[in-house]
Amino acid sequence: MATAPRSSVGRQVDYPTSDGKPMAETEIHRDLMLDLIKTLDAHFAADPMVCVSGNLMMFYEEGNKRKHISPDVFVVRGIPKKLREYYLTWLEGKGPDLAIELTSKSTRSEDVKKKKFLYRDVLKIPEYFLFDPLQDYLKPPIQGLRLVDGEYEPIDPINGRLPSEVLGLHLERSGSQLRLYDPQTGQWLPTSAERIEAERQRADQIEQENARLRRELETFRRQRNGGG
Question: Are residues 204 and 140 in the same domain?
Answer without folding.
Answer: no
